[in-house]
Design a protein that fits this description.
With 276 residues, the protein is of the alpha/beta class. 33% of the residues lie in helices and 15% in strands. The chain has a seven-stranded mixed beta sheet with strand order 3-2-1-4-5-7-6, sandwiched between helices. Bound molecules: S-adenosylmethionine.
């Protein structure tokens, strides 16, 4: 059952690998009916915003991202006030690096969420990348007039998130809780098309071939349990082998596949489903 809502809630973060532009191509493949919706690689949550499900478990292993979604749900007013404090300096390079250098553990949860949104909207291309110590290290984007948030969308998003579970967890832990009739959308860090196209490391832990194989095992376990599962990934030979036997559809994705913005163009990306 999809929630009936007139609120125009839409993603409030720019997220590398975000699915917003692919939604029209994905639309025919979403299941019509399901119990709880699970998005264990949440990122910007484009599919969640599109489906607007009544019951949802949203999770990610990025603590700053999960804190941000939680604060949007629980304290949108406080968050907007904290963001307004960043507003006058949003075009200053030195200010960006000062905020980037601030240790999030020294901030309140609301200030931490404001820092994450500020960095997301003013850094290069909205990328999220951390170094081996887990510190955000994307450079300044140099935008002339970046918007930090939308005064109507943030409260609308807060309303949409009300009553939804938002959890900091590895996808495997969350997938162990999924039950028959639930719908899981898996959007992992993509298997790189080539070694040089690895453009982001979202978290301290890299998502290499071993993790791709483990994820495919999780997919098969969910399938056996009577769960509806959809997965996005790049069209590489490994991905095609790992999901052999399931329904695979190719989508055309226009994206920058490296951080210099070269090699932009339509590339195939896959949607793997265990239903329909
Ligand atoms: C491709 S992005 C998801 C993009 C999202 N679907 C969107 O539309 O914006 C992948 C996400 O997976 C998260 N992630 C990486 N490894 C993870 C893990 N082991 N468990 C849970 N989340 C993980 C990253 O923090 C990142 O937010």
């Amino acid at each position: 059952m999809l929630a009936q809502t007139l609120l125009p809630a839409r993603p409030f973060l720019k997220w590398a690998g975000g699915k917003a532009q692919l939604i029209p191509q994905m639309e025919p493949f979403f299941p019509k009916d399901f119990r709880t919706y699970f998005e264990p690689f949440l990122g910007g949550g484009a599919v969640f915003f599109h489906l607007q499900p009544e019951k949802a478990m949203l999770s990610d292993s990025n603590p700053e991202l999960v804190n941000t979604f939680t604060i949007v749900r629980d304290d949108p007013g406080g968050l907007m006030r904290a963001l307004d404090e960043h507003l006058p300096q949003r075009t200053e390079e030195a200010y960006f690096y000062k905020v980037r250098a601030t240790d999030p553990s020294t901030l309140s949860s609301v200030e931490r969420a404001a820092r994450t949104i500020f960095l997301n909207k003013t850094c290069f291309n909205g990328l999220y990348r951390v170094n081996s110590d887990g510190n955000f290290n994307v450079p300044w984007g140099g935008y002339k007039n970046p918007t930090l948030y939308d005064r109507e969308n943030l409260p609308a998003t807060s309303a949409l998130l009300r009553g939804k579970n938002i959890v900091l967890a590895d996808y495997q832990k969350v997938c162990a809780r999924v039950k028959i009739g639930d719908f899981v959308y898996l959007d992992p860090p993509y298997h790189p098309l080539s070694e040089t196209s690895k453009f982001t490391s979202y978290t301290k832990e890299d998502f290499g071939n071993r993790e791709q194989r483990k994820l495919a095992e999780t997919y098969r376990r969910l399938d056996k349990r009577g769960v509806l599962v959809m997965l996005s990934n790049s069209a590489t030979p490994l991905v095609k082998t790992l999901y052999d036997g399931f329904r695979i559809e190719a989508l055309k994705a226009k994206r920058a596949i490296n951080s210099k913005g070269t090699a932009r163009g339509a590339i195939d990306e896959l949607l793997v489903m265990n239903y329909g």
